[in-house]
Design brief:
single chain; mainly alpha
Length: 77
Protein backbone atom coordinates (compact mmCIF):
# COMPACT_ATOMS: atom_id res chain seq x y z
CA UNK A 1 0.00 0.00 0.00
CA UNK A 2 1.35 3.43 -0.93
CA UNK A 3 0.22 6.49 1.01
CA UNK A 4 1.51 10.07 0.65
CA UNK A 5 4.46 9.79 3.01
CA UNK A 6 5.22 6.07 3.33
CA UNK A 7 4.76 2.58 1.92
CA UNK A 8 3.33 -0.48 3.65
CA UNK A 9 4.84 -3.81 2.68
CA UNK A 10 3.58 -7.15 3.85
CA UNK A 11 6.31 -9.66 3.14
CA UNK A 12 7.19 -13.16 4.19
CA UNK A 13 10.84 -13.69 5.02
CA UNK A 14 12.83 -16.49 6.58
CA UNK A 15 13.55 -16.23 10.32
CA UNK A 16 17.25 -15.87 9.48
CA UNK A 17 16.63 -12.78 7.30
CA UNK A 18 17.60 -9.56 9.04
CA UNK A 19 14.96 -6.80 8.69
CA UNK A 20 17.60 -4.15 7.92
CA UNK A 21 18.98 -6.29 5.09
CA UNK A 22 15.51 -6.93 3.64
CA UNK A 23 14.79 -3.18 3.65
CA UNK A 24 18.21 -2.36 2.16
CA UNK A 25 17.69 -4.80 -0.71
CA UNK A 26 14.16 -3.58 -1.36
CA UNK A 27 15.25 0.06 -1.37
CA UNK A 28 18.21 -0.62 -3.64
CA UNK A 29 16.25 -2.61 -6.17
CA UNK A 30 13.29 -0.26 -6.33
CA UNK A 31 15.57 2.79 -6.57
CA UNK A 32 17.36 1.25 -9.58
CA UNK A 33 14.07 0.38 -11.28
CA UNK A 34 12.59 3.85 -10.66
CA UNK A 35 15.72 5.58 -11.97
CA UNK A 36 15.58 3.48 -15.14
CA UNK A 37 11.88 4.14 -15.62
CA UNK A 38 12.00 7.83 -14.70
CA UNK A 39 15.29 9.21 -16.02
CA UNK A 40 14.89 12.52 -14.17
CA UNK A 41 15.29 10.61 -10.88
CA UNK A 42 18.85 9.66 -11.87
CA UNK A 43 19.98 13.04 -10.57
CA UNK A 44 18.50 12.39 -7.11
CA UNK A 45 21.03 11.13 -4.61
CA UNK A 46 18.39 9.59 -2.34
CA UNK A 47 14.99 8.10 -3.15
CA UNK A 48 14.30 6.46 0.20
CA UNK A 49 14.58 7.65 3.77
CA UNK A 50 17.10 5.88 5.98
CA UNK A 51 14.39 5.15 8.54
CA UNK A 52 11.92 2.28 8.52
CA UNK A 53 9.61 0.41 10.85
CA UNK A 54 9.31 -3.35 10.87
CA UNK A 55 7.03 -5.61 12.87
CA UNK A 56 6.09 -9.26 12.84
CA UNK A 57 2.49 -10.38 12.77
CA UNK A 58 2.87 -13.88 14.14
CA UNK A 59 -0.05 -16.16 13.40
CA UNK A 60 -2.37 -13.57 11.89
CA UNK A 61 -3.85 -14.28 8.49
CA UNK A 62 -2.86 -12.34 5.41
CA UNK A 63 -6.48 -11.17 5.09
CA UNK A 64 -6.33 -9.64 8.58
CA UNK A 65 -3.17 -7.69 7.76
CA UNK A 66 -4.60 -6.50 4.45
CA UNK A 67 -7.81 -5.39 6.16
CA UNK A 68 -5.79 -3.47 8.75
CA UNK A 69 -3.75 -1.71 6.06
CA UNK A 70 -6.83 -0.84 4.04
CA UNK A 71 -8.80 0.57 6.98
CA UNK A 72 -6.26 1.90 9.47
CA UNK A 73 -7.04 5.54 8.65
CA UNK A 74 -10.84 5.18 8.62
CA UNK A 75 -11.27 6.48 12.18
CA UNK A 76 -8.90 9.41 11.53
CA UNK A 77 -10.45 10.62 8.27
Amino acid sequence: EVVPDHVHLFVRVRPADMPAEVVRKFNGRTARVRRQEFRWLAKSKVLWSKSYFGASVGYVSEATVRRYNEHQWDAVA
